[in-house]
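Q: What would this complex look like in 3D?
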Amino acid sequence: MIHFVLLISRQGKVRLTKWYSPYSQKERTKVIRELSGVILSRGPKLCNFVEWRGYKVVYKRYASLYFCMCIDQDDNELEVLEIIHHYVEILDRYFGSVCELDLIFNFHKAYYILDELLIAGELQESSKKTVARLIAAQDSLVESAKEQASSISNIIAQATK
Amino acid sequence: MASPSLMDTLFQRTLDDIIKGLRHQQAGESAFISKVVEEIRREIKSTDLHTKSIALQKLTYLNSIYFIDMSWAAFHAIECISSPNFSHKKVGYLAISMSFNESTSVILLITNQLRKDLKSNNEFEVSLALDCLSRIGTADLCRDLTPEVFTLLSSSKVFVRKKAIGVVLRVFGKYPDAVRVCFKRLVECLDGTDPQIVSAVVGVFCELASKDPRSYLPLAPEFYRILVDSRNNWVLIKVLKIFAKLAPLEPRLAKRVVEPICEHMRRTGAKSLMFECIRTVVTSFTDYESAVKLSVAKIRDFLVDDDPNLKYLGLHALSIIAPNHLWAVLENKEVVIKSLSDDDPNVKLESLRLVVAMVSESNVVEICRVLVNYSLKSDPEFCNEILGSILSKCCQNVYEIIVDFDWYVSLLGEMSRIPHCQKGEEIENQLIDIGMRVKDVRPELVRVGRDLLIDPALLGNSFLHRILSAAAWVCGEYVEFSRKPVELVEALLQPRTSLLPPSIRTVYIQSAFKILIFCLHSYLLQRENIADDMASEMLGLKSQGECSGSSALVAGKAPARQEQDEGFNPRDSNKSYEDLSIINEGDVSALLEKGFTHESIVNLLNLIELALGPLSGSPDVEVQERSKNVLGFVDLIKQEISNGFVSERASKIIDMVHDAFTEELGPVSVNAQEKVPIPDGLMLKESLADLDAICGNVQLPSSISFSMGSPFGESVGASVSIPQSKEESEPSSESTSLLAEHRKRHGLYYLPSEKNETLANDYPPANDPKSSDNTNDDAQDLVKLADKSLLPKRRSNHAKPRPVVVKLDEGDVVPFIAKKSDTRDDLLSDAVRDILLGNVAKTASSQSIISDKSSSKRKGKEKLNVDLPESREILGVEKPDLGNPSSRRSKHRSHGKEKSRKSPEKKNSDEIGDGEKEKQKSRHRHGRHKTKQRAEGPLNVAAQTPVIPDFLL
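A: Here is my prediction, written as structure tokens for the whole assembly.
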């Protein structure tokens, strides 16, 4: 299974973290520090796998972002590479040629998309179209809820409470 | 803190504002963050859920990127998810899944909200709740929400169903009893036509089977169908993983599955699926020659590919197959050896493993030479990897592959001198270990040890200290093989030893003491011989002539060695030579050049006194005590041997100490202690039982497979002898006699000593020069060289026979400690077996199973009872379908011709089997109480295996 997903920028800044196995806050910082040290220092023409503390970390660089997923020893590395690519494609489709800034400003959306892709550390949806449809549907739900909440009458009701 | 006002609501900073703000702060980021957190703390208290949710979202952002603590906001997150507004809910759930863990105190408060959302009509709310449960589910939550998850497993919406399936994995893990409720539905999902559902459920089974494959054997037919029918690579990869786990358990299954796997391998263009097929074959189907051949061919494609990923994976696959099919590695040796100089450290590491795997008795010398040369050129990290793998390969199975120990010992010495070497501990252990096990190598060992000790430069490298300690110990213990003991003492006491840590200095001091005793003893022997000589001279002059003859011989032999030895007296030496050769046949050559005069002994004593004098004030207790002991001894001896006369008392003391030191230390099995019978009435565990609780987290340094290494070599050996010398050797004879007595009584635990002694001493001298001529570093030549050396042919030119390596009777295997599997896992597999066996034995005794299994640890019993009728009902419904596997499987009949042939038999056995299964079942049930307690269930297995075959064909 996938133990965690990390997005790290080339400068070592964390852009997204998702943990499917229990890690305490302290461990999380340590993991990120360790891994970004290992991964960012690897040259461009090396393989995309790193053995790390009995696990394997599969990473791939897209523009300035490194997408990393940590898996068990006997998981399929190439499959995980495909999952990463899959995720990037979905992000790309959603944001329209995604860039790092999109993920910075819409970090929660990146999470929601990831949630549609993976559940409990397993791939749950292999169709890009379906994910896109589901995300769009939820977005419209959120929008309508927001509109309702930010209507003038609501604010007045809030103020006079 | 001011209470939140309308102003806060209206002028609240959004997440975007925060992010922009953070991006503009270059230096004062943390100040900005703490300001924002302050704001959030105020805003989050707002009664307006909108304000609250935005505050929570901001906090979630800060938590995920900047790791700001958000556990204090747990309750506010719960408030958000209880909002009817979807966007608030979403923010709340995100915050919860990011920050909650088992120890979050308010976690139980969300149970009801989760239940409500799981039952919601809005599928997206259901999905939020499921996502959240999959992330934070605790045992309590999973127990309480099992019914809802169960309902969702049959939801009409694929979107919800697949998520529910994913969640089941977490639920099973946390609350194994859920298996009794949900498992049937999960199995049904395998039959589904919807690819998404199948994909999700196969993922779950893959994960479950990786923990306990045996329980899922009965489902093999379902997986087989998917393997043959499915064209979805994601699903196929998972199914292959399942079969990789199942196949070793059931040979007939492997036979059926291997062909479809090969088919996939030939057909597929997807590298991921291809690799999974390869991996499955090389891990679990190594007996099927054709499949292995096919996958090795595919591995070859990977190896020559430009993609570094494929190259790495190809090497990885090779290293999996290497233990069983070494030919596959040998076939690809060029690529493997070239990869040793790859840019990618991972690739280098894998190829190193492979090269090491190719090492055998016939080529170990050459390959080690190649590797050591590589290590000289490579970066420190990889250099140590190389050294580490040489060391671990060579010491495998008590140095199984080493024939020429002289070579190996000098290799160890050479490795110690490699600048980046950090394997001090390992080399130390092996030096001592070899010294004790292999008698014939001791002269060479002492030579290597001397070379290390004598080099003052090595003392400056802290990584080498452990090796030096081993060298010091070896030289002290086997000093009789040394050519010049005095030189050793000088090396051990050289001024730069002050760079050593105290623990190793103590070894040095002790070794110097041993050598001193040896010198004194030899000196005494010599004196006796002189005295004897005097007597014999009186008798006749003939022998004198013989002696001078031999003296000429000796002088011719070793003039170079003698020139440094001050006060060397050829006459003494001759005498001792002649007489000793009668007394002590074995060690003649060793004693040959060790003539000691009174003067040289006094010099030695002075030297020791001078060097150890300052240490008697050392702040380290061990160093101080040992040096004091030695100094005391030196003082005593000095008084006694003044004026060239050795008193009776002194010689007695020296004899005794020498006796104590010459007692051979043999290797001791790690299990030796266990073999000592525990006397009746000895309560070992009682008072120490609670010690575990106190120092549970204090990890003792795990003893390596061989207990002799450092602990015995350094401290035990030394501490045994210390008291003797302190009390001026009175007890020394006592202790030796005690030892002898102990040996007599517990002879079983000692090594047979005769075995070593019978060995001839005609072992040819050190260091085969052949081993060192391959110093060519060019990669191309290395390939050629290794090419030559890697040929699997046996080289018959072993010049010398392999010396005896002392082994312990029961082998030096670390005692196998039965790994206690996690009880939770065990509960899970128990539950799964119950369900699956319940199907098989179509006796519909599910009722009795469940009532039987009313194990003590069922907290939510009332709750479960509610579900029980439901599950019972389902079992009943399933019965006709599952109970008759042949009808159900009839649609796959077309795959195997032999199947139809077998089916009548099988039906027969089905019928006959019923009665048996009943019995097995009751046995199984019977054994349950025991297995629960022991958390390990051979009975379960025994009861289960006969049932499986019905499902396989």
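A: To summarize the key features: Residues 49 and 58 of chain A are 5 Å apart (CA to CA). Chain A is about 50% helix and 25% strand.
Q: Very helpful, thank you.
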